[in-house]
Amino acid sequence: MNNETTLPDPEQTFEQGKSFIKEVKTSFTKFNDEIMNSITGMEKELQQLDKKIIKMAEDSGITKEQLEKGAITIEKEEEN
Question: Measuring CA to CA, which residue among 45, 39, 77 is closest to residue 53?
Answer without folding.
Answer: 45
